Amino acid sequence: MTTRNSSGFGLLLSLFTAVAAPGMSGCASLAVWSAPKKVASTRASPTARAASERFWQALHGGRYEELPEVLDVLTAAYLKNPNDAETAAYLGFSHIWRVSESARLAKRSPTVTDDITLSRKYFSDAVELAPHDARLLGFLGGMELAEGSIHGDEKLKRTGYFTLLDAKRAWPEFNLFTIGYSMSRLPFDDAKYQEALDYQWETLDVCVGERVNRETAAYAGYMTQETQRGRKRACWNSWIAPHNFEGFFLNMGDMLVKFGQPDVARRVYADARLSKTYAAWPYRDVLEERIAQAPDNVAVFRRPAAQGEARRTLMVQSSFACMACHQAR
Q1: Could you say which residues of the chain have pLDDT below 70?
Q2: What integer pLDDT is reported at residue 1 of this predicted model?
Q3: What is the pLDDT of residue 18?
Q4: Residue 21: what pLDDT?
Q5: Residue 327 to residue 46: CA distance in whole angstroms
Q6: What is the chain's Cα-based Rg?
């Protein structure tokens, strides 16, 4: 009797498992799908405000060496309140800064690329918490593209590219530059590099409301349009990026040189001098060198940046990849 009952129970258990297993998988999917989303905090805590101030002091001061401390205080603030979109975004920015300007380091460890993974995570949080901020979407797309490239993950690369396109549509004055800058490491003869360069020209077009001359790059006539309001504020200098204007033309000139147009690049570089803050820009000597070296730099910018080369290299690979726009002094 005992054997018969045990055998029957085993058969029933087997049947139940076979029938229930697909349902359990469906339940798991449903449970994950129905989980509540993170809800953004309505106000920043004193800890978050102090961490934010520490971030801006280091960024505007160009003090790359203070990043470990900045990341510590921002991470502490995030762990206290992981629903603070601003803190998540500052963490994303800080990790971008650390990897983007790693040319400053005497020796770059391969693990510096982990900052890209961390930056993507924090920008993903920031986008979830502040979905209407197209700037964050652009940074997220850039990190998806970068991480996908590092790990040979074609799916993530494509995700990043299309995230960037979404961000571009949402705020072209800001994200045309973002997508172009993100792709400026590509080989000069890659079709996507041509696209990246076209996005720089398009940035100028949407900023001034007409097609800027692709040969003369004449920009002096548009300087009266400077504004700190609306979407076009991204075209000019601001408190966040005190030398955004100068940094934009430095990068665009570099991209034109790499593409093989040093003469046009010289005219684009020279547009940076139109800024009323040009004399105070910490990287004006770099730009003046670029103008003098433009023809020779075609070959220099097309080859991979050498270890320890932090200055005479494409802006995106340099020690001022972020500071050219953000360093105030």
Answers
A1: 1-25, 306-308
A2: 42
A3: 52
A4: 58
A5: 25
A6: 24
Residue 248: predicted pLDDT? 98
Residue where a domain terminates, one of 170, 197, 229: 170
Enter the tokens of residue 158. Answer: 């494509």
Chain length of the chain: 329
Name the residue with tokens 């940046």: 305
Which long-range contacts link 314-319 to residues 24+ away (Cβ below 8 Å)? 314/184, 314/185, 314/254, 314/255, 314/258, 315/184, 315/247, 315/250, 315/251, 315/254, 316/100, 316/181, 316/184, 316/185, 316/251, 316/254, 317/103, 317/185, 318/101, 318/103, 319/64, 319/101, 319/103, 319/104
User: CA quadruple 51, 136, 124, 252: dihedral positive or negative?
Assistant: negative
206 and 268, same structural domain?
yes
Chosen domain end from 117, 135, 170: 170
Owner of token pair 């993100």: 182
pLDDT of residue 304: 84
User: Buried (b) or exposed (e) across 253-273, using 16+ Cβ within 10 A?
Assistant: bbbbbbbebbebbbbbbbbbb
